[in-house]
Known about the structure:
CATH class of chain B: Mainly Alpha
Mean pLDDT of chain B: 94
Structural class of chain C: alpha+beta
Number of domains of chain B: 1
Oligomer: heterotrimer
Number of domains of chain C: 2
Number of strands of chain B: 0
Number of helices of chain C: 2
Helix content of chain C: 10-25%
CATH superfamily of chain B: Cytochrome c oxidase-like, subunit I domain
Shape of chain C: flat
Distance between the termini of chain C: 76 Å
CATH architecture of chain B: Up-down Bundle
Largest interface: A-B, 50 and 50 residues
CATH topology of the largest domain in chain C: Ctag/Cox11 (Pfam 04442)
Shape of chain B: globular
Amino acid sequence: xxxxASNTLTKIYDDTEGDINIQVIGYQWKWQYKYLExxxxxxxxxxxDWDEIYNKTPKGEFYLEEVDEAVVIPVGKKIRFLITAxxxxxSWWMPDFAIxxxxxxxxxxxxxxxxxxxGIYRGKCTELCGKNHGFMPVVVKVVPQDEYDAWVQEKKxxxxxxxxxxxxxxxxxxxxxxxxxxxxxxxxxxHQVNGQGITGIFPNLAGSDIVLxxxxxxxxxxxxxxxxxxxxxxANQLSEVDMASVITYTRQAWGNAENGDGEIVVxxxxxxxxxxxx
Amino acid sequence: MSAVxxxxxxxxxxxxxxxxxxxxxxxxxxxxxxxxxLWFSFAMFLIGGVMALVIRAELFQPGMxxxxxxxxxxxxxxxxxxxxxGAVMPAFVGLANWxxxxxxxxxxxxxxxxxxxxxxxxxxxxxxxxxxxxxxxxAPNFGWTFYAPLSTTYAPPSVTFFIFAVxxxxxxxxxxxxxxxxxxxxxxxPGMTLMKMPLFxxxxxxxxxxxxxxxxxxxxxxxxxxxxxxFGTSFFNAAxxxxxxxxxxxxWFFGHPEVYIMILPxxxxxxxxxxxxxxxxxxxxxxxxxxxxxxxxxxFVVWAHHMFTVGLPLAAELFFMWATMLIAVPTGVKVFNWVxxxxxxxxxxxxxxxxxxxxxxxxxIGGFSGLMLAITPADFQxxxxxxxxxxxxxxxVPGSIFSIMAAVYYWIPKWTGxxxxxxxxxxxxxxxxxxxxxxxxxxxxxxxxxxxxxxxDYALQFADWNMISTVGAFLFGxxxxxxxxxxxxxxxxxxxxxxxxxxxxxxxxxxxxxxxPYHTFTTPPKVN
Amino acid sequence: MNEGSKKTIKTLSFAVLGMFTFxxxxxxxxxxxxxxxxxxxxxxxxxTNDKNIEIDNGRDISLQxxxxxxxxxxxxxxxxxxxxxxxxxxxxTATFYVKNTTNKTMVAQAIxxxxxxxxxxxxxxxxxxxxxxxxxxxxEEALLPVRLIFDDKLPSSINSVVLSYTIFDVxxxxxxxxxxxxxxxxxxHDDNHHAQHEMEPSI
Lengths: 278, 528, 203
């Protein structure tokens, strides 16, 4: 048994280059992917509704296995994954590709695959990484080469369009509507759908003094995170548009609009914040 | 306990146990301390068991029904710590305390007062550990394997108490092991050479050496954690030039021998019971000793098979794969010897024998899944999934725990002077046997189907087997209440036991009365 | 208690102490082992002493740079070039652009890692911004150099290497010195930190 296993293992440890190199970064509790050749960069979050998880609505077919953005790769090409982590140890597992490598902060692990069949393939995080270890799945979509090329082009166009969106003038309702979507994806796990948080652990946003009256501090918290607390910085994960809209949403929802100073945040505010302060 | 007195010619003031509750606080008698350890481990087994039921209840169906993910992680962490350090290890130490002196013909352990200390720091340590549930930030939530940096930079404040508790448990084990080794090496009755010792004594001699070698390494690991957390060092922090993988190397250098620590005494128990109930001398005594020693030595060079996915170089992965597969050989020798002992034996199936046979069969199943895990490229698929959970629960529950139960049924007539209720014992066995298999066998399937470990909720395709596993867990849990009842009932009364208790039993402990007198072998017996 | 018992107790107690010390000794032992064998993609965090590793007709390899900000540390940090072709046996200087976009002075530590891991033993550096902590004032930016070489004993199966740097925010650390910090004279060390940052990307 050991001999065929040794041969297989040696082949797995192939160290030649890939056609496409993708850096995979594990976060608490999502994945980030950077396509090194094409400068594509996005996060992958679980999209299963927390209402389904808490048994308020029926569970969908891909319960706990669905994400907002799949990793897209072409068939037949050698893909090399460069796996690391942003905080604690995670592990990137794609059972159908027979790949599992730990994601260790500060270090890179490699894995490679060549997929022959187009399709949607699902994986999981396989190293205890905190509270939502069970809630950060992986989805890889394998497509024919021409579809892949189209996707790459679309990503580049989207980056360009995002720049335009940042410049545009947004209405309060446009921001709030977009912001609600961002909130449900990124914030609800801790701050809850009703903005009440969990007493003693995650602060409430509904009726919170910062959200009601302190726009500057509100932006600072989202951009920098809070030292020594679970609240991380979202500056790298949210575009300026998404950042502005989610902050505006929280300042408007749950009666906050009536009870607070009514200040909203627009994308240009975030661009301004990012400029060097000297 | 009995107060029957033998004539003795030393100045000891005891003529039987002291009266009152303080007897248990101050006792230096190996029988008393053995009982303390056994009762303590039973209590921990039930507490750890309740935590397991919280876990299984949450996993009964997809969705979060009972607890929040943060608390779930505390439950899985404490379940592991309590079962390993609070149930299995103290139970084996309790058995060692009761049996080793009698089996070698010694009057007590070599260091009776240190023996008392070794026990009494344990409730203290577990009180600290369990009280962390009520601390701010909750109990430790990083798994019983507590990898850095989840257990250092990202840990709740209770981690410091966790470290303190681990130090105390480690000290207890180390002191206990010193006691066992000194007793065995220096206090055997004349004529009892090493190769005449009962196998349970051999198993504990080897286990004690393993403990001496690796518990200090665990102490080192948690001390380094403490320094990283509180004193600004960077053993495991990449930012300061350290390495999270170093933690895993140090932990598993302890951790792998640890799992053999948790099974070797079980091997010893199985040998005794199978021999007695087959009414036939154990086959291959010398090879049994050789096998246990080889397993112990090999256990030092296989640790990285827990780390196949961290990115070790190819040469290391190959080495650890080959070394791990090698351990199957001496283990196989032992299984072969047990089966051969039973072959053409005159077998009766009292409760201890039922547990012992189930041990051999089900431990072997656990061994097979272990062999599958040893194959590195295959392990890439199994690692950190329920397949691993199934493997280690098979070797620990129908492995270690069944052997402990077998030992209790086998020796309790010697300890109490009363036979346990055979009908109830068999009932307990069958309920446990069914419970354990219904709980853990399906976990092989869900692991292979893709369910990771340590998750509080899962995708829908894992639902059916999880539900079945939970039903099994509750059945198994309920049958341990029956066990508690059986033990209490036996302590309080029952059919009187003879010295020999079991037809075909061999060993010095069966030459004294049942219940064994408070002091035995105050004059050493002659062994031929 | 008989003499034999006392002797055994003494021996065992020493064994316990010895194993405890051994676990601490594992720390430097592990690092030495990693350096010697190139495990885990660990690279020496100090300048190489190797002379004579330069050769003239080395083979081509492609070197890819990857960067990451640990814990979303708020600096801009990226390689000046993502992908370069170099020869074994020849020194190459690469640079990384870094900028402190906050309004506080901060200190960062870069930690390198290499894939495939068996390339690490063959990667030597004459200078690297990872040898020291880097301090930047608010708004300050810099081009940080790394001068590296692959010796020609690099296994022939390796044609492409990924060199990753992760930067960590160490502003609040009590002057943590790297465990492998060298006291060797390495290139440019007699200048202070800021002088090293003066940018002139070189080949």
